[in-house]
Design a protein that fits this description.
Number of helices: 35
Number of domains: 6
CATH topology of the largest domain: Poly(a)-polymerase, middle domain
Number of strands: 35
Largest sheet: 6 strands, mixed
Protein name: Nucleolar protein 6 putative
Keywords: Nucleus, RNA-binding
CATH architecture of the largest domain: Orthogonal Bundle
Pfam families: Nrap (PF03813), Nrap_D2 (PF17403), Nrap_D3 (PF17404), Nrap_D4 (PF17405), Nrap_D5 (PF17406), Nrap_D6 (PF17407)
InterPro entries: NOL6/Upt22, Nrap_D1, Nrap_D2, Nrap_D3, Nrap_D4, Nrap_D5, Nrap_D6
Subcellular location: Nucleus, Nucleolus
Structural class: alpha+beta
Strand content: 15-25%
CATH class of the largest domain: Mainly Alpha
Distance between the termini: 54 Å
């Protein structure tokens, strides 16, 4: 027997804490460990992360990337490897288990005698009872990862050992491969083993049943060894879990009878008794039990290469991080290892190449392999059968994918479906692209980050499980009944749902992927778990997804029309369209303003129409409930609600360009308000008080309206001129003159309502208030006019950065975000949803709208064509993951809208980021650089906020919400489960300023009577144009800004911009540390008692007077503040 060992110093699994590995990689400890791992002295070891940063700055070539990639792989392998040392007692433990199993007496076993409820017998032909003549196993072998020494740590950090228990051939008769008799006897044999293990109290902690590769009809035993038994065998550092897998020898049955074209299940219905249908999956499952030792021997030969062993571990990590091994029709680590073995046998790579090169070759092979056009097979072994062309065609006709092992009989990919392979190819392509790119963060995307199915699709639907009685009425052919017997009811139902939705949704989606809910273990004394629900993942095509009419075949194509009507079950009708065509079509009425719900409507209708036992209300959707997060009381709730903003804006632009009395001609009119780019949290409505007297107001559905209007900022650019003043004050006066001139012209020529201020002019027309702001090319030059040493200080001053941001960056930012919003229909709603999340977490004042847009833009820009979010759910998930997973401390976030940043540009940004890190007091905590920013003014939107402690809070909350949403998906998308991700833990705050809402204006246009002082009636007989209004008046924001500027050094303030009823306060950690008393701030300090045993005078220490501070805040807020409450911290 091969010696078995395991590391005493086993660390936590990377699958529980991937961040630990990322941190390990970026420390000098990882540097030392990597040196030991590769067996080289420290001075010749790979450079650490700090050294690599400097190397990359000096020479950003491929050697830098490959060295760092190798360092990351070494660290990952060291963390996940099951070191087989210090487990000498395990060998005796396994021999003890073998002895106990072999001591089981011969016996006749039936279902009644066994009385194991968890192993029901199929007994397909019920003429006589199934009887097993039990005998002890003919052999017991360790197979798989442990014996091959390529295992990785399990998610629960237990040592998992696969053991085959070979059932003697004498337990079967030659025809037991027919009609489930082999499966029934296999269950009876396993039941005897489990019954024996359950009474071994001194050895076994628990013995459960589990599905083998997701199939409940093919159970195995999972045995967990008692800790006391492990200690007796001197195993103290690890738990041991054994998986007992029944197997048979290749001579148990005639192998020719198990060919894919053979039928080994007879029908029950007399009418179909003469029909013969092939049973490839049934036959392949029996062959599978014969091949365990064969495949282990073949892999064992290849494991002599250390690189091959490493590659096997890496692909197992890759599979597990994507959870393909949890899907019944997808790939697992063993199959990818066999694919690596196949590539090595075909000399695609040699045993001497590095493990990462092997993985790249594998990913490229998976990406390019088209199983619809070709099949693959190992070279036939001596005891195998040569596969002829006709034989291969038989496999291709029976299976969706064909990958034959060396026996020439068993299809390794027999379970895998085309939809699963397409999903695997997509992930392989993305991984290969990341591994070949130059970003050192891409390693984490490939091997560290989890990529569950919930992150790969845009929308999910949960279809209830079915049983045989439910689906019997919907099955109309003997072939379908036979398919249920061949593949099992769960897989049949999953395939039917997937095929039906793929046909019904047509080009609305680019991919439909149906998977079964997660499988679970069960006790032998309990019933088999019920049938699992079906989860359908949809990848949406936004160009076609939201249409309300499905056009079918032409009316004169009778055959296709009949098929189309059968698909839609009476919903289809013949219609004539404007282009003159007469076609079968389906119209989805009532969704004109809810187009985002059309896919949900189709899924519910088509499933219920074909399978009436599935009620529409029993089908849940991820899109159905979380969409309500965008519905804010008092604002339009429909994403598709029409808006006249762009029409009104276009008319205003035409009027402004026609103003010929201005000293300079207007050269550019740039809308910079978020509403113009569809990212404003509050959907914009036409305000009844924002009309001129000459304009017509439609019907007003409410009687009270807010008198505060939100201004829509527009930048005006004039033709170049050398006459602009060169002093700040004179320049401002000149711009004010332009405002007066514009207002006079608009009032005189077009009777518009205008309000002039020193820094803008507000134009009220057709329900909107537009704020015109003049921007000139002279502004930055006026501010940065200094020379010499003061030049650098001015360029880094808040005033210069703010001016550059508003004059140069904001128009560019607005244009790029508008283009992105037009390109991706889900972009705007995702930005709005992320803003809603920030509001609910009381982080509204922490991130500007431009920062939120940049974060979401990075997600959309850096996603491939197959992974770009096309729904708000997937957009929010990816945005939260970006916030929580990005290493903000060591790396900047580069948002390259137009892919204009070349290698030199990116390297320059990294150099400036590293230089900025050397000054922690001025270094932005959230460093986001975009391609429209100049190198001397990067990260302008986050230069001064958020603070580092606020960023830590943001990252923590984003990670928690991301996990909550993933759990919500996995548990069926309940109607309220998603709200947990938006819930605020208020005990995190130290104090709360309760605001008097009646004293504050509302952002809503419609207000209730007496709910606020800032309202006016909107009766028909009133001249609404004469009602005084305030534009941009926001006392809430003024109060918040005053508090932040005055108490920035001692407190943090958090608000919910939607409710605006509370301002939460959190004291900074160093606020109440004793400091030297200062007379100038004595009103805000409390002196501490002097303690000095020597009697000498000492400098008095003091701490802030919290009650005095709160009293000052109360005075500053005046009538706006209703009360201030202190909270008892639970931290």
């Amino acid at each position: 027997m091969v010696k078995m060992a395991f590391s005493k110093n086993s660390a936590k699994s990377i699958f529980e804490s991937s961040e630990r590995i990322a941190k390990m990689i970026s420390t000098s400890d990882a540097h030392e460990k990597s040196s030991k791992l590769r067996g080289v002295p420290p001075k010749y070891a790979l450079p650490n992360d700090s050294e690599l940063h400097h190397l990359h700055a000096a020479d950003p070539n491929v050697s830098y990337r490959s060295s760092f990639f190798r360092l990351q792989i070494d660290t990952l392998l060291q963390s996940i490897c099951d070191d087989q040392e210090g487990l000498d007692g395990l060998q005796k433990l396994l021999f003890d288990l073998k002895t106990h199993i072999e001591s089981i007496d011969k016996q006749q076993v039936t279902e009644k005698l066994l009385q194991v409820q968890g192993l029901p017998i199929h007994n397909h032909i019920k003429r006589k009872e199934i009887v097993l003549a039990f005998q002890k196993p003919s052999r017991i072998d360790i197979i798989g990862n442990f014996i091959l020494k390529n295992s990785i740590k399990s998610s629960n950090n237990a040592l998992v050992i696969d053991i085959t228990v070979e059932i003697p051939s004498s337990c079967f008769v030659p025809k037991d491969f027919k009609d489930f008799r082999y499966a029934d006897k296999r269950k009876l044999y396993l039941g005897v083993l489990v019954s024996k293990l359950e009474i071994m109290d001194q050895f076994v902690e628990s013995a459960h049943l589990a599905p083998f590769r997701g199939e409940y009809e093919k159970p195995i035993a999972v045995v967990r060894i008692q800790k006391e038994a492990l200690r007796r065998h001197k195993i103290t550092e690890v738990d041991v879990q054994l998986r007992l897998i029944p197997s048979i020898t290749m001579d148990t049955f005639k192998l020719g009878k198990l060919a894919p074209s053979r039928s080994n299940i007879r029908h029950c219905a007399a009418a179909d008794s003469g029909s013969l249908y092939q049973t490839p999956l049934y036959n392949n499952a029996i062959l599978e039990d014969m091949m365990f030792r064969r495949h282990t021997r073949e892999l064992h030969v290849a494991m002599k290469s250390p690189s091959f062993t490493e590659a096997c571990r890496l692909v197992k990590v890759w599979v597990r991080q994507r959870e393909f091994d949890k899907e019944i029709d997808s790939i697992n680590g063993f199959l990818l290892c066999m694919l690596l073995l196949y590539l090595q046998a075909k000399q695609e790579f040699s045993a001497e190449v590095s493990s990462e090169q092997m993985v790249k070759v594998l990913m490229h092979f998976v990406t390019t392999l088209d199983f619809e056009k070709q099949s693959i097979a190992f070279t036939t072994a001596e005891d195998g059968v040569e596969v002829t062309g006709e034989g291969m065609r038989a496999f291709q006709a029976a299976f969706q994918l064909v990958f034959l092992d060396s026996s020439g009989r068993y299809n390794l990919f027999g379970r895998i479906s085309h939809a699963a392979w397409a999903e695997i190819q997509m992930e392989a392509w993305n991984s290969l692209h990341l591994m070949q790119s130059e970003s050192i963060e891409d390693f984490r995307q490939v091997f560290i980050h989890r990529s569950k199915i919930w992150t790969r699709y845009d929308q999910f639907c949960w279809i209830p499980a079915v049983d045989a009685a439910d689906i019997a009425d919907a099955i109309h052919s003997a072939e379908e009944r036979h398919d249920i017997l061949d593949m099992g009811l769960e897989r049949f139902w999953k395939n039917k749902v997937q095929a039906l939705l793929h046909e019904a949704l047509s080009n609305r989606v680019t991919s439909v992927r149906a998977v079964l809910d997660v499988c679970v273990e069960w006790k032998a004394s309990d019933a088999v778990p019920p049938s699992r629900k079906v989860v359908v993942g949809l990848r949406i095509d936004p160009a076609n997804a939201w249409r309300l009419v499905d056009r079918g075949p032409p009316n004169d194509d009778k055959v296709e029309c009949v098929k189309y009507r059968q698909l839609w079950k009476g919903l289809s009708d013949v219609r004539r369209f404007k282009d003159g065509s007469i076609v079968e079509s389906v119209v989805w009425d009532g969704l004109d303003e809810k187009k985002h719900m059309v896919i949900d409507r189709i899924v519910r209708y088509i499933i219920h129409a074909h399978y009436p036992h599935v009620q529409p209300q029993s089908i849940s959707s991820s899109n159905q409930y979380i969409q309500t997060a965008l519905h804010i009381d008092g604002f339009p709730s429909d994403l598709a609600a029409p808006s006249n903003l762009h029409i009104v804006f276009s008319n205003l632009c035409k009027l402004l360009r026609d103003l010929d009395s201005l000293p300079l001609q207007i050269s550019g009119i740039i809308p910079v308000h978020p509403s113009f780019r569809n990212t404003n949290l509050y959907p914009l409505q036409q305000h009844p008080l924002a009309y001129a007297k000459s304009e017509t107001i439609g019907s007003i559905p409410f009687t009270q309206a807010s008198t505060v209007l939100e201004p829509l900022t527009i930048h005006l650019h004039f033709e170049k001129s050398s006459s602009w003043p060169t002093e700040i004050e004179a320049l401002q006066h000149c711009k004010t003159g332009f405002y007066v001139n514009i207002a006079n012209e608009l009032q005189a020529q077009y009777q518009m309502r205008c309000a002039v201020a020193t820094d803008c002019v507000d134009v009220i027309t057709t329900g909107y208030a537009f704020r015109l702001v003049v921007r000139t090319e002279r502004e930055l030059a006026v501010i940065a006019g200094a020379q010499g040493p003061r030049k650098l200080a001015i360029l880094n001053s808040p005033k210069y950065i703010e001016t550059k941001r508003e004059t140069e960056y904001l128009p560019k930012h607005a244009n790029k975000i508008h283009a992105l919003s037009t390109r991706f229909t889900a972009f705007g709603p995702t930005v709005r949803l992320l803003q809603r999340w920030l509001c609910e977490k009381c982080l509204s004042n922490s991130l500007r709208i431009e920062v939120v847009e940049l974060l979401v833009a990075y997600v959309f820009i850096n996603s491939s064509s197959t992974t770009v979010p096309q729904s708000i759910v997937s957009g929010l998930l990816k945005s939260l993951r970006l916030i929580s997973d990005h290493d903000w401390r060591h790396f900047p976030l580069l948002v390259d809208f137009d892919t204009t940043l070349d290698k030199e540009g990116r390297r320059e940004i990294h150099k400036r980021f590293d230089a900025s890190r050397s000054s922690p007091s001025t270094h932005p905590a959230l460093y986001i650089a975009s391609d429209y920013e100049d190198m001397d003014c990067l990260s302008s939107w986050t230069r001064f906020e958020p603070e580092r402690v606020v960023l830590q809070r943001l990252v923590s909350m984003a990670g928690q919400s991301h996990q909550i949403l993933l759990r919500w998906f996995s548990r069926g998308c309940s109607s309220t489960g998603w709200k947990q991700a938006f819930r605020l833990p208020e005990h995190d705050f130290d104090a709360a300023i309760q605001l008097h809402l009646r004293k504050l204006p509302s952002k809503r246009i419609q207000v209730e009577e007496r709910s606020t002082c800032f309202s006016a009636p909107t009766y028909k007989n009133l001249d609404l144009s004469s009602v005084p209004v305030m534009i941009g008046f926001d006392p809430f924001q003024m109060l918040l800004s005053d508090l932040q500027s005055q108490y920035k050094s001692i407190a943090l303030f958090f608000v919910n911009d939607i409710k605006r009823d509370v301002i939460h306060i959190t004291w900074k950690p160093a606020t109440f540390l004793p400091a030297k008393f200062r007379a100038i701030a004595s009103n805000e300090l409390i002196p501490l008692p002097q303690v000095d045993g020597s009697g000498d005078s000492v400098r008095t220490l003091a701490v802030p007077n919290m009650f005095q501070l709160l009293s000052e805040i109360q005075s500053a807020g005046g009538d706006m503040i209703e009360s201030i409450k202190l909270k008892i911290s639970r931290r």
